[in-house]
Amino acid sequence: MRRPDDLYKWGVWIAVFYAFWSPVLQDIKLLQITPWVQAALFYASLPLITLCFFLSLVLRKDVSIWRVDAVEGVLGFALIWSWIWVPFYGGDVGDIGGNFIRVLFAVCAYKASRLYAFDPWMRGIAPRLAKWGFWGVLWALVGLYVFGVFGPFYVYLSLNSEEIFVALATVLTLASTRRIPYSMGIFVLVMMGGRRGAILAAFAMILLKYAMNWNAGLRAGVADRAARAKGHWRRATLLGIGLVCIGGAFGAIQWARANPKALEALPDNVKLRVVPLILATESPDGPDTTTLTGKRNIEVIAVFRQWAEDPLEMLTGQGYGATWTNQDGERDSTVHFSPVAVSLIYGIPLAAAIYGVMLWLPGLALVRAVRGLGDREEQIWALVTFGLIALSLTGFSLFQNYVLWIGLGLLRAFTARTAANAS
Asked: Which stretch of DSSP H or E encloses residue 214?
């Protein structure tokens, strides 16, 4: 019989393996060859990683597995709640099983990571995920640009570059000034991937790190005027950089709209991705939200229309296998906006509770950082989890992102350690 901590390690190694190969294999999909290779990797790894984490808990002879925190309580209730409504609303058998195993994975990954966070082997988990996620995204970009952007294949430039978020958080928390060029370089790689959600989520991580540094230097004693002056200068610099970035982004969009011919120099595959988005920001009838959101607004409107016809469904959810009706009158199970997708399954009140307990952890880490508490490990996982939660606003990725739930479990353990050390 394997030791339970060995089973947990196997689960983490599956996550590391996936962090490298998922973006690399996505090239095959984005180059319009076949979408099934990356999908096969996910559908093969999800039950395996869930089983590893589940058995690492079941075989752990420790009363701590019976202690439930807020995250586990809400997710555990969601597991049971959704089964209640399946007989009333039905749904595809595959979707029912897929939705269930995703939530089961989230519960098991979170709890196992919380309990095994201080295992000596886990000290290297952030560097491992940072390294392999970085190289996976880098090689994926090389493939996309060599064979797609500048090559013979048509490419849909929308790489799932969130696997690089651990590397971004790692360099953002460096104590030296090297964090500035390193983080800028990684952010450029995310932008080269072309996925709007990943770009916005990476930018959200940078903003959160700025907020964590807001009081740096101002916690010094009143007599230490030099340190306080440096703190005020840092605060002004952070604010100035943020305003320049926002102003520069708006200025670049305005310039591109006024000079569309300048975009002709871009490779064809890049123009197909960039030009429609720029033109969609201004039209005779206002911004083209359908183009800007990648048709996600249509999905959300359809779900709200369905709720208007059945208000009870809005409160209870449809349970596992939830569906909505698209413009062609066909049933669809995917909403590329996780808050609405989660609400469709569990109902708005339970979805709000799920997001609330998830955001509580990076929010708590932010408060600690502003007060000068916490440590680098806590900040790394706060940045990663916040970025991945933000990413879920542009896709239904909330319960199937391996790094997110491992990270939330680790973050819970590190915040508890910080509170214990402070008391």
From this structure: none
Beta carbons of 405 and 47 less than 8 angstroms apart: no
Closest among 283, 137, 146 to 199, alpha carbons compared: 137
Question: In this predicted model, what pLDDT tens digit does every residue of 336-391 receive, in sequence order?
Answer: 888 999 999 999 999 999 999 999 999 998 888 888 777 888 999 999 999 999 99
d(CA 17, CA 29): 19
The answer to whether the CB of 386 falls within 8 A of the CB of 415 is: no
What pTM value is reported for the model? 0.89
Whole-number Å distance between alpha carbons of 31 and 367? 43
What is the Cα–Cα distance from 420 to 423, expressed in whole angstroms? 5
Residue type present at position 68: V
pLDDT, tens only, 17-29 = 999 999 999 999 9
421: Cα separation from own chain's centroid: 29
Integer Cα distance of 93 and 88 in angstroms: 14
